[in-house]
Amino acid sequence: MVMLDCAAAERRIRPHVIETPVVRSGSLSARSRGQVYLKLENLQETGSFKPRGATHKLLSLTPAQAASGVVAASSGGNHALAVAAAAARLGIAAEVFVPSAIDPAQREKIERLGAKVTLVGGDPLLAEQTARREGERSGREYASPYNDPAVIAGQGTIGVELLRQLLRLDAVFVAVGGGGLIGGIGTHLKAASPTTEIVGCWPRNSPALYECLRAGRVIQVEEQPTLSVSTAGGLEDEAITLPLCRKVIDRSVLVSEEEILEALRGLYREDGQLVEGAAGVPVAAFRQVATDYANKTVAIVLCGANVSPAIAAMITAS
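Now predict its structure.
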């Protein structure tokens, strides 16, 4: 089992990332008759939680590794953007591999930070596989979006902050892609707050890790288009997040595209948060099972704000 020290990671990255606030959602609290808080990772630098893991990974490099530069891959561009930002801050050269269908605005943001962007056609997993091969070929360190202990520990710093910010935490809802975010948060909370329920949330159109957990191994999962672009794509064959998530996830909830869009609209109209599709997934999941959390304190991680103009128009339409 992978050993993670999220508390140590939190101390290490503290000078470089934002301690994002938690705010109470009146509408979601009323729906459940409990206390529901939103963890605003959409306010993190680069607009998502990803700088936590990317920064911790780059700070973990040896001087020789840092001098050689890094390669990375990303499905929706959030990890690539985070690696580019961290690399620019730390003076490390970076090349990122992204699907050719990436939102052009995301690509421009990455390039403005000084990283080289290489487009890869096909499934988002292919970008990961291509980046890893290029890292091996060139002798550069590969910064995986999820399949790396240093990255996972960095993402788990959200759990450290939640326990500092909330006096009570009965459950936390997290969107799941490759499993690095929920794996890190869950690992820390299982050790520091073992009564907290860890709820994994997936789009029905893109349930790769969910199906892998059901199968007990990494399998190919057919996926359909989803608003939750940042969680799309399959797992690498030796993904360390599979056994990690099997250990930490207590409950799984799958949501439809209609539920995701309705959750995004609710966040915008009732909570004043315009966020990306992946951030709507755990909110949609909570809305689906809200009555199970009466008189409980729940945190929902809003993982990012990098919403495309097309989806933003769908959210804000009256």
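The chain has a mean pLDDT of 95.
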